């Protein structure tokens, strides 16, 4: 019988990568670096064998996709922001067995899934940036699931439920990471560089802060009621698929856990960012 040992909403913004490079931006995301490192420490302490990552930068337009390669090894440059992230070498074991089980459970739930082992299918930075901190010694397997940009909140809830079923069948101890932002509205090019440490609007900032209050107070059912509007009005990253998967995996409106915020909320190039660890209910591991 498998076990979900950890479930967290995490940030992956490129400015975290800038924060560890020499130069004027060195250290600007230290609290986020420390929070991601703490997620990794907790995962190890809980015996995690695989990081299952809902990657909002692996954006799919049809169906749901898993990178089920035996090994992930390459060098990465971001197509979006190559001046932020380039020459990032990585080497992680994958988890093809869990990928196949997840694919089976997604199909069993009435949706379409594809498990890929193509040699040229690499990892995206919503996986790679967090992995640098949570999996620095590469001791834990890595399995990304893409986010369908045309999917509904309800579809992603059902994907989260399929993830849980597959994990429980797997015999694996799995840490799930929902890798995406809160609000995700980018500023116009003319002012983008001036908002490196800011959120694009007061509305988005206030909405993000209200969401964090709901999470940390355990008012998850209230949050899920507003999630479709939140996604629409605050320009959800990857359709906020990672967030819907996270709560689907945790039990949706039956989940009453209180999130633990591991770093201060911060703005990055107009988007809202945070790291929150959600306690896993014991029934999810039965």
Which descriptors apply to this entry?
286 residues, 12 strands, 37% helix
Structural class: alpha/beta
- pLDDT averaged residue by residue: 97
Shape: globular
Give the strand order, joined by hyphens, for the main sheet. 7-2-8-1-12-9
Given as residue ranges, the uncertain stretches (5+ residues, pLDDT < 50) are none
Q: Write down the Rg.
A: 17 Å
- Multimer state: single chain
Cα end-to-end separation: 8 Å
Strand content: 15-25%
Q: What string, H for helix and E for strand, traces the elements in order?
A: EHHEEEEHEHEHEHHHHEEEE
SS summary, helix count: 9
Query: How many runs of DSSP E, i.e. beta strands?
Result: 12
Helix content: 25-40%
Q: What kind of sheet is the major sheet?
A: 6 strands, mixed
Which helices and strands appear, and what pairs or packs with what?
Blueprint: E1 3-10, H1 14-18, H2 30-45, E2 50-60, E3 64-67, E4 71-76, E5 88-93, H3 96-108, E6 113-116, H4 125-134, E7 141-148, H5 153-170, E8 173-179, H6 189-192, H7 202-216, H8 220-233, H9 241-250, E9 260-261, E10 266-268, E11 271-273, E12 276-278
Parallel strand pairs: 1-8, 2-7, 2-8, 3-6
Antiparallel strand pairs: 1-12, 4-5, 9-12, 10-11
């Amino acid at each position: 019988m498998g076990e979900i040992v950890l479930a967290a909403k995490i940030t992956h913004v490129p400015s975290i990568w800038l924060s560890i490079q020499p130069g004027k931006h060195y250290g600007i995301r230290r609290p986020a670096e420390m929070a991601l490192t703490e997620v990794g420490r907790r995962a190890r302490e809980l015996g995690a064998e695989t990081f299952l990552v809902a990657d909002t930068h692996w954006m799919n337009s049809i169906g749901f996709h898993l990178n089920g390669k035996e090994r992930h090894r390459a060098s990465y440059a971001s197509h979006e922001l190559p001046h932020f992230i380039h020459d990032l070498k990585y080497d992680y074991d994958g988890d093809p067995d869990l990928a196949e089980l997840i694919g089976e459970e997604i199909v069993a739930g009435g949706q379409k899934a594809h498990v890929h082992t193509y040699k040229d299918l690499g990892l995206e930075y919503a996986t790679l940036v967090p992995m640098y901190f949570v999996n620095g010694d590469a001791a834990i397997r890595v399995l990304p699931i893409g986010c369908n940009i045309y999917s509904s909140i309800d579809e992603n809830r059902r994907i989260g439920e399929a993830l849980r079923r597959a994990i429980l069948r797997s015999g694996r101890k799995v840490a799930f990471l929902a890798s995406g932002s809160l609000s995700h509205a980018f500023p116009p090019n003319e002012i983008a560089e001036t908002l490196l440490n800011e959120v694009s609007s007061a509305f988005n900032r206030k909405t993000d802060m209200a969401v964090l209050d709901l999470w940390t107070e355990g008012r998850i059912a209230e949050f899920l009621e507003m999630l479709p509007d939140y996604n629409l009005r605050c320009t959800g990253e990857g359709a906020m698929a990672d967030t819907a998967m996270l709560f689907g995996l945790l039990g949706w409106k039956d989940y009453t856990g209180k999130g633990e915020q591991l770093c201060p909320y911060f703005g990055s190039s107009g988007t809202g960012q945070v790291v929150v660890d959600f306690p896993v209910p014991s029934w999810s591991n039965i």
